[in-house]
Amino acid sequence: MSREKLKEYILNKAEYPFVLRGMIDTWPAAKWTPYTLSDQLPEQEIRFRLGKKSEEDVQWETGCLYENATIPQFIEWSHGKCSHGNPLAPYSTVKYWCYADYKYMVKLFAEKCDILEAIQWETFGFPGRQGDDSTFWLGSQGSYTVCHYDTYGCNLVAQLYGRKQWLLFSPADMKALYPTRIPYEESSVFSEVNIDLPDLCRHPRYKEAVPYRVILEPGDVLFVPRQWWHFVKSLDTTISVNTWIELDCDNESRLHEAMTRLLACTVMSEMSESDSIQKIWLNPTEVATSFSQNMTYIKQVLTCINTDCTTSMTASYQDPEDRSSDVKRQKLDTVRDGLSAAKSCKLTDRIASPVDPTVLHHKYKQSLSNRITLDGRKKEYCSTLDKSVVSPLPGSHSVSDRSPSFIAGESSMCNDYTIVSDQFDKKHIIRIEPDVRQMTADNTWPDVHNQKMEEITDENIINSILHPDVINVICNNLLTSCKIKH
Ligand SMILES: O=C(O)CCC(=O)C(=O)O
Question: What residue stretch is flagged as signal peptide (predicted)?
Answer without folding.
Answer: none
